[in-house]
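Reopening this ticket.

The earlier resolution said the output was attached, but the attachment link was broken on my side. Pasting everything inline this time so it's all in one place.
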Amino acid sequence: MSTTFADLQISAPLVAILRERKMETPTPVQAEAIPLIAAGRDALIESPTGTGKTFAYLLPLLTKMDLDKKDVQALVLAPTHELVVQIAKEAEKLLPGADHAVVPIIGGVDVKRQVERLKKKPVLVVATPGRLLELIEQRKLKVHEVKTVVVDEADRMLDAGFGKPVQEVMKKTLRDTQRLLFSATISEQIVEAAKAFTKDAVLVRAQAPEGAAGVAHLYLVSDPRKKVDTLRRLLRLVNVRSSIVFVNQIEKVDEIVSKLNYHHLACRLLHRDASKEERARTLKQFRDGVFPVLITTDVSARGIDIPEVECIVHYDPAPDADTYIHRSGRTGRMGRAGLVFSIISPQERFIIQKFAKQTELAIAEKVMSHGALEDPRPERKPAGKPTAKGRPQNRQPEAGKPVAAKSGSSSKRVHKKGGFGTK
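Inline output:
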């Protein structure tokens, strides 16, 4: 018998809202995290991107809250403006009729307007750590009644850029405040760093939901001078409604945008230097299908939750395996199917091989041919010198020379028409 949200002691009004949204059965991370949070335990919770981590903490937090008590009872810290707004909107949907119960706090906007919203006595504040700490130190936000602090995207929130303000926020709350860290990847370094402000924290590594359609991880080898053309051909071939293309350096984007637009592939750039309003407008238009291709860097796209994204392209290889996982997690959310491509030069094969080993993912090489994705043809081995008996010897590969990744049957093809098709 499967577990339900009611079995996890989620409040009846919340269960009713979930039922209206066709959410009956908790995902693995929700089934594991909710009882721990309800019991008041500190926890570090790892689960693949798109498996329902936001609801894993919002549901038990909102169940425990006293909406009649006009004090901030929980804080959620997140690294980007977009993720803060996204989490706040999900919380508001779970509290219909409770006006002003949730307040998002982000940097780069009028602080006076945020102070006015805080005067309406919210019970939940979702914030970027820098602006939150500023308001606490100015005594515009009181945290003496905060029972729980959640750190979302914890792997990034405890790095050099965010680590100090996050820890300062923790110091401002009471010693017995519950501390929860969520991320798609929780390394041993994060576990060690969290010991400074958690108590007997439980480490949970949850799996993706069973029966998930799955994500195909593939890579294409391209001459660096032809990468934009390779990207254009790939996007035409997969022909999906929405794709996100990741680049490492924003300077490369102008060429990509101009060439894709020239070939009538509408695309937009999402970057951190754009205004808050411009970034929000770009994301809304992408969600609404106004244009099919979003080009971004890791900083801009962190935590973006757009369930319908069907394809991710690493135009530049991710800087490390964790970043590869976070980028790739923008597709295949909540068990949907998805495609992930990396476009690499011949000299970058070792990067893909390293990611495959570290993530235990099968990342297969493909080539584009006649409107389909095919396995690369094996290279013909040159004949060796004849032996004494007149038979040629096969030459051994040179030491350290990369070998093309195996990807199953050589007859598999992914056609442009007929959906994903990739296994």
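Reporter confirms the inline version is readable. The first strand starts at residue 43 and ends at 46. The radius of gyration is 24 Å.
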